[in-house]
Amino acid sequence: MRIVVTGGAGFIGTHIVDRLCDDGHQVVVVDNLDPAAHHGHPAGWLRDGVDYVWADVGDPDVWPSVLDGADAVCHQAAKVGLGVDLGDIRDYVTSNDVGTAVMLWSMRRAGWAARLVLASSMVVYGEGRYVCGVDGVVRPGPRLVSDLDAGRFEPRCPVCEAPLAPGLVPEDAPTDPRNVYAATKLHQEHLCQAFARESGAAVCVLRYHNVYGSRMPRDTPYAGVASIFRSQLEAGGAPQVFEDGGQLRDFVHVEDVARANVLALCGPTPISGVFNVASGHQITLGEMAHHLSRADGRGREPEVVGSYRLGDVRHVTADANAASVGLGFKATISPAVGLVRFASDPLRGMAGR
């Protein structure tokens, strides 16, 4: 197959490219080398035999030649992470929404309607699934600043204010993005699904949970929390764990994420639908930080600092059954094993490194 991978020089993208090349596919990469994720050319991660197009997905002139003969497009390119503050809103919308819209417009103009795999995120759910002992499954609203300031981090039942038990969020859960990045990821989903309805293309949306592994960018607020903790350890400090460290997440290894993409791209029949891509293991941020600290070996225990970010949610962990049934995907690397590996995995250098 001839497969286009946008963002194919990035963290997840390079792992997807590696797997596709190993399987004998012809790969074209479109990547603008955004300095938020790259410090120049990532020479150490690039594969021989791949056609690299150093351009932005939002440039319509790129697409006619890129789509020519393409059997599938794997859309990984995006500005990721919670960001710094609302001042990032223009960059997020331009990179994620406008870039995706130009790509889809170009596909429509070229009459291209094959397989499209979109990298989405668990952030589209907002808070995860919660059960109240009195009112059943409920959806708590955004946490109040007054509660966060007072160290009351757990959401309460929106009906009776009783404590809630977190559960696993399925793909049919209501979406409720709580920050700009999350809003742009959900809009990407909507744009691609509209394209599918009008073109007949098979669109497979993969909602990644917390992805970690080698080649993550270091020393940037746009990286995932695992990379941030790694950077803090490498600088001689301790991981700074927000809130009380009890936030539940699902950390899925990048090698498993790459495999999920290849299953969606290259299976015997096109796959449409929305799928959580997760390890199936719940772990708190405090536990994750302890795994990294112990594996790092320098004796720096995590520090629970009580700080918070308004765009964060308390608990979100995945029901991974749909991906098992629909994609044939099950994660093979548990966080307990993968995080030990990650403590010494190579990361991407950022500006000046």
Walk across the major sheet and give the strand order.
3-2-1-4-5-9-14
Shape assignment: globular
Task: Give the averaged pLDDT, no decimals.
Answer: 93
Largest sheet: 7 strands, parallel
* Helical residue percent band: 25-40%
Distance between the termini: 37 Å
Number of E-state strands: 17
Q: Structural class of the secondary structure composition?
A: alpha/beta
Topology as a string of helices (H) and strands (E) = EHEEHEHEEEHEHEEHEEEHEEHEEHH
User: Which residue ranges are poorly predicted, with pLDDT under 50 across at least 5 consecutive positions?
Assistant: none
Main features:
globular; alpha/beta; 353 residues; 4-stranded mixed sheet
Itemize the secondary structure elements and their pairings.
Blueprint: E1 2-6, H1 11-22, E2 26-31, E3 51-54, H2 63-67, E4 72-75, H3 89-110, E5 115-121, E6 129-132, E7 136-138, H4 145-149, E8 164-169, H5 180-199, E9 202-208, E10 210-212, H6 225-234, E11 240-241, E12 248-249, E13 251-253, H7 254-266, E14 273-277, E15 283-284, H8 285-296, E16 303-304, E17 317-318, H9 321-326, H10 335-342
Helix pairs in contact: 1-7, 3-5, 6-8, 8-10
